[in-house]
Specification:
The chain is an alpha/beta fold. It contains seven helices and twelve strands.
Amino acid sequence: MDTADMKLTIGHLYPDLLNLYGDRGNIVCMVKRCLWRGIRAETIEFNMGDRVDFSKLDIVLLGGGSDREQKIVCRELRRIRREFQRYIEDNGVVIAVCGGYQLLGRYYRTKDDIIEGLGLLDIYTEQGDGRLIGNIVLDSEWSDVPVVGFENHGGRTYIGGHKPFGRVLYGAGNDGKSGYEGVVYKNVTGTYLHGPLLPKNAQICDHLIKKALERKYGPVQLKKLDDGMEMAANAYICSRFAGRKRATLV
């Protein structure tokens, strides 16, 4: 099937509350890389009170927010938990960043409260001493080159038997100790990487696009793009940070 006949619909959940560090840029990147290949792409934003019809969505972005915003959003997400779970179990593509990543788990325990999560993944988060903050570099099977980004989180996330998004080459990752970052379950990717993530990591963006297209249309081969600038930026970050293990606590 010609990619010119294909279309992806990207759902951005609660961008009015969950958009730390330019997480919206992930949407821009996905749309652009689709359009450059002749694939039609549209974005639907869902704000508080909106009805979310997951049957019309091919990719879902759940961005990051503060603890206060996470509480507000989690109450809203509980209304659509069953629909969200069905979408995930049907191999719907999800990219959940920072606070959105934490909300997919069972809970996030802060020093003063417990934010009940959606329990869509068997993971949980505990607030630690100090924040894990700084540049981060990962080795991930979904990219031929290291994955780069920026992390800033007080929570330590424990993913149990789930598969991590990547192995930490530099930075802190999920908890500053395990050596792993993020989580992968079916076509769900949870990560602490801001920046935003996808413009800095073209291969990860294409991986998500390909998964969404294959779920909808069957096997597909993505047209190669000129990623010279993206690769040069990636190489600079890797040369500056990769191989140095220390996490920065503030």
